[in-house]
TrEMBL record, chain B:
<dbReference type="GO" id="GO:0015658">
    <property type="term" value="F:branched-chain amino acid transmembrane transporter activity"/>
</dbReference>
<dbReference type="InterPro" id="IPR001851">
    <property type="entry name" value="ABC_transp_permease"/>
</dbReference>
<dbReference type="GO" id="GO:0005886">
    <property type="term" value="C:plasma membrane"/>
</dbReference>
<keyword id="KW-1003">Cell membrane</keyword>
<dbReference type="Pfam" id="PF02653">
    <property type="entry name" value="BPD_transp_2"/>
</dbReference>
<feature type="transmembrane region" description="Helical">
    <location>
        <begin position="34"/>
        <end position="56"/>
    </location>
</feature>
<keyword id="KW-1133">Transmembrane helix</keyword>
<feature type="transmembrane region" description="Helical">
    <location>
        <begin position="213"/>
        <end position="233"/>
    </location>
</feature>
<feature type="transmembrane region" description="Helical">
    <location>
        <begin position="245"/>
        <end position="276"/>
    </location>
</feature>
<keyword id="KW-0472">Membrane</keyword>
<protein>
    <submittedName>
        <fullName>Branched-chain amino acid ABC transporter permease</fullName>
    </submittedName>
</protein>
<dbReference type="InterPro" id="IPR043428">
    <property type="entry name" value="LivM-like"/>
</dbReference>
<feature type="transmembrane region" description="Helical">
    <location>
        <begin position="160"/>
        <end position="181"/>
    </location>
</feature>
<feature type="transmembrane region" description="Helical">
    <location>
        <begin position="63"/>
        <end position="85"/>
    </location>
</feature>
<keyword id="KW-0812">Transmembrane</keyword>
<feature type="transmembrane region" description="Helical">
    <location>
        <begin position="297"/>
        <end position="316"/>
    </location>
</feature>
Amino acid sequence: MTEPIPKTSPKHLRHNRDVLSTKKLAGAGLPEFFPLDHPEAPPVHGGYVLTPFTQRTRTAGLLSSRRMLAGLLLIGVASLGLMGLGATSASAATATPTTKCVADATTGCIQGTIKQSNGDPAVGVKLTIAGGDAPETLTTDAAGKWGVAITVAGPYTVTLDTTTLPSGETLDPSVTNPATVTGGLGRNTGTIFKLSGSGGSSSGSTSAPTTGDTSAATGGSVTWERFLQQAASGIRLGLLLALASVGLSLIYGTTGLSNFAHGEQVTLGGLLAFVLANQLGLNLFLAAFLTVVVCAATGYFQDALIWKPLRKRGLPNTQLMIVTIGLSIALQYAFQFFIGAKTVRIDKANPVTVEIGPITLSVQSLWAMGIAVAVIILVGLFLLRSRIGRATRAVSDNPSLAAASGIDVDAIIRLVWTASAGLAGLAGVMLGLVLNGVNWQTGLQLLLLMFAAVTLGGLGTAFGALAGAMIIGMVVELTNLVLPGDFKYATALLILILVLLVRPQGIFGRRERIG
Amino acid sequence: MNEFLTTLTAIAASAFSPSTAALAIAAIGLNIHFGYTGLLNMGQAGFMLVGAYAFAISIVAGIPLFPAVLIALVAAAVFALVLGVPTLKLRGDYLAIVTISAAEIVRMIGRSSLLTDITGGSNGLTGQSYRGPFTDLSFLGDGQTTLGPFTYDNTGSNGWWVRLVAWSIVGILCLFVFLLMRSPWGRVLRGIREDEDAIRSLGKNVYAYKMQALILGGTIGALGGIIYVLPASVQADSMGRSMTFFVWTALLLGGAATVFGPVLGSIIFFALRLFVQGIAGQFVPDSIMNGQQAEQFSWILIGVVLMLVVIFRPQGVLGNKKELSFNVN
């Protein structure tokens, strides 16, 4: 490798290419392929660059690749292990104390009073309101009243958590739960949850079985059980986040584009699954499969119709980024146009929960985590082992160099768009199942976590996105232990800012990419 | 025909409403960030929210009007400082990601139940609680005044007084930006936008200039936030990501790096929305598109317009293509 190859002599070059076996490269302690612009890499010759593509090789002797594979396996093993321990169903969001809501020109109120069958106010009943703004959890106050201010008119879903009803009280059979109300600005909208006291005697059997559980229920202190529950939730969120953000990172890596419309791909997946599984009544697995296929197709056509022509026009990335913002706005309102602002459920049936050890988990969560782990491992193997996967990483590393070595950069980018959209769609389906519903801004909320995960791991590195997603997922859910639910996303974003202060290139990123 | 006239009147009314002025002010701030300096601030709504909260909370706490405005501006400056320190030395995307995240953090903290006593939680602060000192300053007196088809209270919550003040501020800011960008300081900013390294090689401290631009634009954004909440209420969710995107759309529609672009863009933004809504409301039967869907359709169109403007006319209505290179690094 020390001898420069005279470029004027094709014969000589050919000869060299034949002679340069991968074994020799590995023996010289050179990175096989991945860090072509690694600072320690020798000057690149045509023959050297081409070698990994002209010869299929089993020598995975590169340092970074091995490290990434190890990290990936670690994530997989850790998550599988914790899956054995169990996971939790929807995380218990901390209750918001009810305040008086005053309707004016820009706000409206949804409110009501819950009374027990004997006329006393039902105190401490939890309700979840989903619709225009972020879903909100409320608790009835001492007078049994609850209320929330809204800034977007439209249908809202009010779900009463029947497990928080006073002992002996049940929902009257005539009540629809969840109830859908149409909230308007400048007025108060109410809905009534009538209770009936059917089994007063059952209160004895629901007394706290052991010590410690009562404190966990009130949400005040950190207990081992709560920690385990939240950790399991964290792994679940991290896995789904990883699925969604790998694509974001790959798109960034291959095209340099920060895709602000990636969150809408996740929403699209969830909503498509709702239409297929809930509306059309397809089998859940079939619906999920079809959703992924359709989502992947949207990625393919998006690149074919929008992004490739714009790349050819030579539009700078900043401009393209603002185009993605426009697309994101258009898609969000398109979702509202067709589905509405309400939160919809993919699966009609109530989730079945399983208890393993101290942790409760829904069956769907288990499936989602299992599928996520499998898909992530497949993506990892694809990127590390297959030729196209290597080509993808090559384009991600240095597009011009990849093009110079005969890789069809446009085809790779098309593949990345397709796969990213498909993965995001899959993440959307599973998020919808796990979080018990999906609405037009599910993806929007996730997008910031995805950006945090991708930046934390290192912009443009696929495996960094996985690691970052696991960390962010954990942080978000564990924050719930000490802070109210409102803060759980805020902590993740705070970490993002701190990471940029200390190590702006992220965990797996390289210094020269950030400047 | 009569209904068409109603739509036109509604469009004209929205063209000089306080919200349009507030959006214009925020867009002027963003113009200093993006148009002149090339900073990708994706959290302008965060600056607005910080300003609105600081202003409203100060008034509620009993601080007089002008000190309260000052507090709001200082709060926005501190916010800009916090965001700028980690990101201004990095590539543009990082500022974008951090600003959008920080704006979300502000929104989440604002609507958090922990701070209900101070921020009003998700219900926000009602306009009556902080509007008093502002309306007390009015010299228009009580009663209503009719100008053409428009009738508003002279001083009431959403009347002529707040319109007068809001548009005066817009005018003053336009003049301010015009003078500022002719100054040597403004030329350095534009130089940074065009070629950071060239400016650095002239011995200028690019980092410091960027920071100053971020702070200046942010405080103007806070001013926009104050104007935005004066006729309404402080509601964390009304200044979320969508607001940031609207400010961007307005700026790019009108033309970044121009003095009047942000103002014109804001007016077009609201007019276009109402126009689409009005047309759809009248000519499309309810079975195809009901009132709510017409509104959503107008937003879809806003998104598409943003895409098309950026692709085909990145300089906007007023801009000069040479002026705006869009190459933020």
